[in-house]
Amino acid sequence: MTVDLDNIDVAIIKSLMQDGRKSFRAISRELKISTPTIKARYDRLVNMGLIKSVRPEIDISKISVSAKKKLPNELVDYLKIQKKSLHINLDNLKVKLECEFCEGPIHEKPKVLKFADIERFFCCSSCKNDYREKYGGRIQSLIEEYEENKKMKKA
């Protein structure tokens, strides 16, 4: 199943594509949206599987010849062919979701399991219930850890 991204999601992705090292606070100032909203949206994009990682963009021309010799050949080759800039139009982007339990595609509106500050997406209620049953202990420990961290931040 594909998921529509709203303007805030698209703006966060664009901002991170410009500089993946930006803090949530810097993005919130740039977009004029609260920092907790940026963090929650980012976490949701990660949990959906849309953001898989944030990687450095390395300028190979800045590395000395002696330093290049120390790097594995595969890395040097990769850096040489790496594109200088990547521009992707994110308007009307749709995302294909995969069930967290059976790993099958989600064709309709996903069944969502929310706990702590995490969201998991499922193709059907039975996958959602089976996931909850299988990982119930881990889910409970994450909820407790989340509650404890929340209390510590308030204190």
From TrEMBL:
<keyword id="KW-0804">Transcription</keyword>
<keyword id="KW-0238">DNA-binding</keyword>
<protein>
    <submittedName>
        <fullName>Putative bacterial regulatory protein, arsR family protein</fullName>
    </submittedName>
</protein>
<dbReference type="GO" id="GO:0043565">
    <property type="term" value="F:sequence-specific DNA binding"/>
</dbReference>
<dbReference type="InterPro" id="IPR000485">
    <property type="entry name" value="AsnC-type_HTH_dom"/>
</dbReference>
<dbReference type="InterPro" id="IPR019888">
    <property type="entry name" value="Tscrpt_reg_AsnC-like"/>
</dbReference>
<dbReference type="GO" id="GO:0043200">
    <property type="term" value="P:response to amino acid"/>
</dbReference>
<dbReference type="Pfam" id="PF13412">
    <property type="entry name" value="HTH_24"/>
</dbReference>
<dbReference type="InterPro" id="IPR036390">
    <property type="entry name" value="WH_DNA-bd_sf"/>
</dbReference>
<feature type="domain" description="HTH asnC-type">
    <location>
        <begin position="5"/>
        <end position="66"/>
    </location>
</feature>
<keyword id="KW-0805">Transcription regulation</keyword>
<dbReference type="GO" id="GO:0005829">
    <property type="term" value="C:cytosol"/>
</dbReference>
<dbReference type="InterPro" id="IPR036388">
    <property type="entry name" value="WH-like_DNA-bd_sf"/>
</dbReference>
